[in-house]
Design brief:
three-stranded mixed beta sheet; elongated; five-stranded mixed barrel
């Protein structure tokens, strides 16, 4: 079995991927918008002076800015505190929300900030996935099928295509790539490659008479109606109809 991949953590991650036994922690270098001085400084400070104890301890030792701390909190990089993201966002504004004072790294006494009693704050897996998509450019714990509004995943999966040769079926696939070719009559046709919900590849063919307009609309999942054909023992789908499926809205963006 391979290593379990984890989101960045200020107490476990390094500049690049940190592999420890069966655990692989993503590095800070992959976080979009995180400044180089923190990409290098956070793990360096931890190696020199030990693990961070809590949010306040982390803020004082790294002299992190509000904007940069928010990036890390949103991605879950301070989950070692045992507090949820929204609580940590409240607390970071308590530390840095006003004029930020230069931290004294030689401070002898740990000054306690005022603690607020907060209501239970909800955070959804979908919201987390959108944050990962934004800050890592990919969702670690979600795949594209999880974003779909529909739970439908197709009548036939790629592994079973050989059982349905000659039949017209509906399949759902996550776009991988495409290739455009010109026919003898100088019309366009396309070949597509997709992944099904089980992670298996399958190919599609889009003839000019069934797809007179450009059929692909970027990355995402598509509902595919087509006939399964077989050539030299390899199955593919000759597409009749083809449409990109809608995804759920980012909960944070919903009014």
């Amino acid at each position: 079995t391979g290593a379990k991949v984890h989101l960045p953590c200020v107490n476990r991650s390094d500049e690049t991927v940190n592999i420890n036994g069966n655990d692989a922690f993503l590095g800070f270098v992959g976080i979009q918008g995180l400044e180089n001085k923190f990409i290098e400084g956070i793990p360096k400070e931890r190696r020199l002076n030990g693990a961070y104890k809590d949010l306040g301890h982390f803020v004082k030792r790294t002299q992190i800015t509000l904007e940069q701390a928010i990036l890390l909190i949103r991605l879950g990089a301070l989950r070692f505190t045992g507090k949820d993201k929204k609580t940590l966002l409240w607390e970071i504004y308590n530390y840095l929300g006003h004029n930020q004072k230069r931290a004294n790294t030689a401070e002898l006494f740990h000054l306690q900030h005022k603690e607020y009693s907060l209501p239970e704050l909800e955070n959804s897996a979908l919201e987390d996935a959108y944050v990962e998509w934004e800050l890592l450019t990919f969702p670690l714990n979600y795949n594209m099928f999880d974003f779909l509004k529909t739970k439908y995943r197709g009548d036939v999966m790629a592994a079973d295509m050989n059982k349905h040769v000659g039949k017209t079926v509906r399949m759902v696939g996550n776009y991988v790539c495409e290739k455009t070719v010109h026919t003898i009559k100088n019309t366009k046709m396309w070949f597509g490659t997709f992944l099904d919900n089980n992670g298996d590849f399958f190919d599609t063919t889009h003839f000019p008479n069934t797809t007179p307009m450009y059929p692909f609309k970027g990355k995402g999942c598509y509902l595919i109606l087509g006939k399964i054909v077989e050539d030299f023992g390899f199955q593919s789908v000759e597409v009749v109809k083809f449409a990109k499926l809608d995804i759920q809205m980012n909960p944070v963006a919903v009014d």
